[in-house]
Design a protein that fits this description.
Blueprint lengths: L1 E3 L6 E6 L5 E5 L3 E6 L4 E7 L4 E6 L5 E6 L8 E7 L4 E7 L1 E8 L6 E8 L2 E7 L5 E8 L7 E9 L7 E3 L5 E4 L6 E5 L2 E5 L8 E4 L7 E5 L4 E6 L2 E5 L8 E4 L4 E7 L5 E7 L3 E5 L4 E6 L6 E6 L5 E6 L2 E6 L3
Antiparallel strand pairs: 1-30, 2-3, 3-4, 4-5, 6-7, 7-8, 8-9, 10-11, 12-13, 13-14, 14-15, 16-17, 17-18, 18-19, 20-21, 21-22, 22-23, 24-25, 25-26, 26-27, 28-29, 29-30
Amino acid sequence: MRAIEGHTKDVRTVAFLADGRLLSGGSDKTVRLWDLPTGACTTTIKAKGPVYAIAAAPEGKSFAYSGRPAGRAESNFVYLCDSAGKPTGKCELRTQEERLEQIPGTFQFRQVPRWVPRSIWSLAFSADGEYLAAACRRPGSANIPYGGGGRCWPRNSNGDATILPDNAYALSFAPAGCGLGITRNKSVAFYTAPAREPVVEYDLTSDWSAAVAFVPGSDLAVVGTNSFLDFLNPLRKDKPIRLKTGIRTVLAVAVSPDGRTILVGGKPGVVEVYDVSSRSRTTSYDFGIGGIYALAFAPDGLTFAAGGDKGLVVCDTSG
């Protein structure tokens, strides 16, 4: 295990470029690009607000990031960069909700649509490179966040963005094609393509589930809900397999490129390792960085990164 020094606040998101370089972002309002052999930060991008989500494009030449909207803007944006961190564009995400407003001169009220900027917490590129998708969260009672909707943009100039369900919370694309999994309030839905109806939906036990991921080389997806890990078939309705983790609140899930290993993190701050074939926990790590918000495997599967309350670490999968 090696600590990567540079972020001054919690690290909320991590991702690897195809060449093995590490991306990270967090509440210090920066996106950082790391050369892991030396541990050097080669690029620092100053964002407009805390960064909650980063995604690397499959072709290895670009990435996207987003987070909390700036100021009192009516929109939020996903920012696009080339592999060196140079800005190349942005995608706008506007969300609308109905608010009660008093009719002037009367005691009556009416529902009025209003643009509300929401924080983007989940970003993903499709494996075929055709789409970029983002999901938001909105504040709820007792500081519990709820799904805030999202968008899926075609990466070419043709076609309009697909509007995702207004209670979309977290999302992930399949390891091939453009299949998509989206957690929503008390459910998760799987799609063969963003603009289509879901192929299958599963009920979940929690109002929200912060992590969904597909398992390469199989008809499996995993969802982290409360302290559980659910194994689901994204192509047909099968009986879910549910595992109790040792984590009170699962916030991050990552699957190795070979589909054999699953990492699970959350609060309290441990990372648990699961074998896919046996559905069993093989080991766990406490890196001393507090609650775990983000996990990602390197493209070769030999290394993974974890971001948490107290920083960023990288670890060999062999321990």
